[in-house]
Specification:
Chain A is of the alpha/beta class. Chain A is built from 10 helices and 10 strands. The chains are: A alpha/beta, B mainly alpha.
Chain lengths: 274, 278
């Protein structure tokens, strides 16, 4: 029976590395050389909303630590959690929600205690020409609007649904149902759902304030959500138990939580954790 | 033949032949094992974890129904439009023939995700064609029609190319004989040309259908993913993989079984028709 179990694992691993663009053999090679100064690799799995901020911090990290290559894979936190559970080789996990991190802790996949490193808030995004004329959250419930959400279990989408539930108290009991009946597509992660608005096919989507990046500002408009209805997303970060280089993993967490790291995150529209 | 003798290994040494055929058989076994092992793993996981229950889930049923529906429409359109197109391609000697042949090769080599982006930029709301459609209140994004368009885009070349080859192989003198006998052009096409090219048409249709069934990249980018509307089986597998791996396995087995049944049915039907016709 043993070989069979290994077989599943192999199949799962191959498909995971194929899906996430993490070449499994490349990882193994990088990890093997972990002890040497020459070529060290730090692998980070991070929520897709962190793409730009972590991209910039990755460069900083490589400059500060000569001979280290930072490899990052961005996806929905739920997707990344599955990858970690299936044994994807990685050093650090940065989630857009507590829930995924709590599961990782419960499954014994995390080294130490996760730290909240940043906050984010949800906004509604519409195309610049705003074809459905959405100026307020309430108008997302108008009939025949093409609304795109990230997939179920993706934190950005779960927060959105939570916000709709809260808004029922103000906008009437049917509000959440009306909005959800406008959904025409569920995307793999929050960045994909924002891109539906960028290309103009969706009339609206829910994303994070930090997803309103400079390169899409010419094509997208933000409709803020009132603070009493909004949900503040808290992002936890932790080194992973399977890390081949725990010291390096801790260094990354330290950079992200440092003043410098916080400044970069703020630059990308995140809010400081403290 | 004499020249070949110089470079090729001596032909009459039996151990060389034995070695060569042994290696060929080993290669075949390796390939067969490589293809069957993952399929077996799917089945083992499904039985082991009781994942088969997820097959009857509403998500799986909606996805299967949508896949059946969209691939059927795709094939109907392909047969009606692709068959005469292939005939013209095979028979007419016009100047653009080469260009069109090359054009038809592009969707075959283009990664489907790139095809999805291309379709989006053409038929999306702000797209090259889409912006005019939008004026008339026609939107294709996020509709089942968009799924069919993605499937036709990637699958059409497979049918048209094979059908054209089939038509090209039909002996023209047989068609001319029928014309001399007083049959109309349409009658000759349907009664003579099509039956003679039939095996090629079926083979082409089967490849195109398989390609349409497996379509993922172009669909998820161009049509989006929504249960019952645009979420075909491959998209449902991807969506489930992010949450419930058992459901993803069940869907994979479901589509495996479905493809198997269709291949067997087509083999059986064409074997019968083939012997009938010849």
């Amino acid at each position: 029976m043993r070989p069979k179990v290994n077989l599943y694992f192999l199949v799962a691993l191959i498909s995971i590395s194929a899906l996430s663009g993490l070449p499994a053999c490349g990882q193994a090679a990088g990890g093997g050389e972990g002890g040497e100064k020459g070529e060290r690799t730090l692998t980070i799995l991070a929520a897709s909303s962190l793409t730009d901020a972590f991209g910039e911090l990755g460069q900083t990290f490589e400059e500060q630590n000569q001979g280290v290559r930072v490899k990052q894979s961005f996806g929905s936190s739920s997707d990344l959690l599955v990858q970690i559970q299936q044994g994807a080789p990685a050093d650090v996990f940065a989630s857009a929600a507590q829930e995924e991190m709590n599961t990782a802790v419960k499954d014994g996949l995390v080294n130490g205690t996760p730290q909240i490193f940043v906050k984010n808030r949800e906004v509604v995004m519409v195309p610049k020409d705003n074809p459905a004329n959405i100026e307020r959250l309430r108008e997302v419930a108008k009939p025949d609007i093409k609304l795109v959400l990230a997939q179920k279990d993706v934190p950005a989408a779960d927060y959105a649904v939570e916000i709709l539930g809260k808004a029922n108290a103000q906008y009437g009991d049917d509000f959440e149902e009306d909005v959800l009946s406008n959904v025409v597509s569920r995307e793999a992660d929050v960045r994909a759902s924002v891109n539906r608005v960028v290309v103009g096919d969706a009339d609206a989507t829910f994303g994070y304030a930090s997803d309103y990046t400079p390169d899409i500002r010419g094509r997208v408009k933000v409709v803020p959500i009132a603070p009493d209805l909004n949900i503040i997303a808290t992002y936890p970060i932790a080194a992973l138990k399977d890390s081949k280089d725990p010291k390096l993993a801790k260094k990354w967490v330290d950079l992200v939580t440092s003043e410098e790291g916080q400044r970069v995150l703020e630059k990308w529209n995140f809010e400081p954790a403290a | 033949m004499k020249d070949r003798g110089k470079d090729a290994p001596p032909r009459n040494l039996p151990w060389g032949d034995t070695l060569a055929s042994g290696l060929a058989v080993a290669a075949l076994a390796l390939l067969a094992g490589f293809i069957s092992l993952p399929l077996i793993s799917l089945l083992v996981w499904m039985v082991d974890k009781g994942a088969w229950r997820a097959m009857a889930s509403p998500v799986a049923m909606d996805a299967l129904l949508l896949s059946v529906k969209t691939t059927t429409i795709t094939m109907a359109i392909l047969l009606v439009v692709g068959t005469p197109a292939a005939y013209v391609l095979a028979r007419a000697d016009f100047r653009g023939n080469r260009v069109i042949n090359t054009l038809l090769d592009i969707p075959v080599v283009l990664p489907p995700s790139a095809a999805g982006i291309a379709l989006l930029l053409a038929f999306g709301r702000l797209g090259l064609v889409g912006q005019y459609l939008d004026v008339f209140g026609v939107t294709v994004s996020f509709t089942t029609a968009a799924v069919v368009m993605a499937e036709i885009f990637v699958a059409a070349p497979f049918y048209v190319r094979q059908a054209a080859t089939g038509f090209g192989a039909v002996d023209r003198t047989i068609e001319e004989a029928a014309l001399v006998d007083g049959a109309g052009r349409a009658t000759v096409f349907f009664r003579v040309t099509i039956p003679l090219a039939f095996p090629a048409l079926v083979a082409g249709a089967l490849t195109a259908w398989a390609r349409a069934l497996g379509e993922f990249g172009a669909t998820i980018i161009f049509a989006g993913s929504f249960r019952g509307v645009t979420q075909t089986i491959p998209l449902a597998i991807f969506a489930e993989f992010q949450g419930d791996i058992d459901a993803a396995v069940a869907l994979s087995v479901l589509v495996l079984g479905f493809a198997f049944v269709v291949i067997l049915a087509v083999r059986y039907l064409t074997a019968r028709t083939g012997s009938y016709e010849t």
